[in-house]
Amino acid sequence: MNVLAVIPARGGSKSIPRKNLVDVAGRPLIAWAIAAAREAKRLDRVIVSTEDEEIAETARKWGAEVPFVRPMELATDTVSLIPVVQHALAAMDGLGFRADVVVSMQATSPGLRGADLDAAVAKLEESGADSVATVLKVEHEHPYWAKRLEGDRVRPFSAETSESYLQRQDLPPAYVFDGAIFVRRRRLLEEWSGRDFGLGADVRGLPLSAESSLHIDDPIHLEVARVVLARRAQYLK
Question: Does the pLDDT of residue 235 top 60, yes or no?
Answer without folding.
Answer: no
